[in-house]
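Try this one yourself first.
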């Protein structure tokens, strides 16, 4: 079987920027006990929430180790602030997403999962608001590890624990950022990149995405890529 791992923000959903930044800034300030400048929160695309915290903590003069030790406190603060600032009305499902997930879910050779920088409670909350949570069997989250590339280890472990017949070499990543593409490249995995986030399609292709589309509607390149994925997995069975 193939394990298809989706990013969330900019790939499946768009969430209004302002309430998210408010929640993040407040959680950082409560954890670090000092003001956090908004300009520190600009380059976030593809980063895990813990990675963001570690970087901002260093800008505040904390050591990496000291910041790591406070990661759980930040996570609790951020989940609480997110629930106060961000609401269902702030979430929009991107074009083609629901139809694509329904199609993939119908294939007996595909398992759908998540590979996201979001903390786990925040990820599932967004997907519940969007009506998409039921599509995903497993997930790896920004609360598992600060480094995005390491999240794949958690996804594979959880797939095994769930009794799913998936293998690392039959994993595909779907995302919108350069960090999604680089994560796939680090493990030698195929990547479908979608230009619904902040990164232009040309740059996603340059960095090594095998399939780049403007959105997740059934464009011909995406359809051919998924058909090949299905055919390969079926042939192997």
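Now uncover the answer:
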């Amino acid at each position: 079987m193939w394990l298809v791992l989706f990013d969330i923000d900019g790939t499946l959903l768009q969430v209004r920027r302002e309430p998210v930044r408010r929640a993040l800034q407040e959680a950082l300030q409560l954890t670090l006990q000092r003001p956090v400048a908004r300009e520190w929160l600009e380059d976030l695309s593809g980063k895990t929430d813990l990675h963001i915290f570690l970087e901002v903590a260093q800008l505040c003069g904390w050591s990496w180790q000291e910041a790591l030790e406070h990661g759980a406190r930040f996570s609790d603060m951020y989940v609480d602030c997110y629930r106060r600032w961000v609401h269902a009305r702030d979430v929009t499902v991107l074009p083609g997403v629901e139809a694509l997930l329904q199609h993939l879910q119908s294939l007996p050779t595909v398992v759908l999962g998540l590979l996201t920088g979001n903390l786990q409670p925040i990820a599932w909350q967004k997907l519940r608001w969007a009506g998409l949570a039921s599509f995903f069997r497993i997930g790896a989250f920004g609360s598992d590890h600060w480094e995005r590339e390491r999240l794949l280890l958690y996804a594979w472990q959880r797939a095994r624990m769930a009794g799913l017949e998936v293998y690392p070499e039959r994993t595909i990543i779907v995302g919108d950022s350069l960090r999604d593409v680089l994560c796939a490249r680090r493990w030698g995995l195929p990547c479908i990149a979608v230009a619904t986030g902040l990164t232009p399609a040309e740059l996603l292709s340059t960095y090594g995405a095998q399939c780049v589309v403007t959105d997740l509607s059934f464009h011909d390149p995406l359809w051919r890529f998924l058909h090949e994925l299905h055919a390969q997995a079926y042939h192997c069975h």
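Discussion: The beta strands are 2-6, 13-15, 91-93, 110-115, 138-140, 171-175, 191-194, 211-213. The mean pLDDT is 93.
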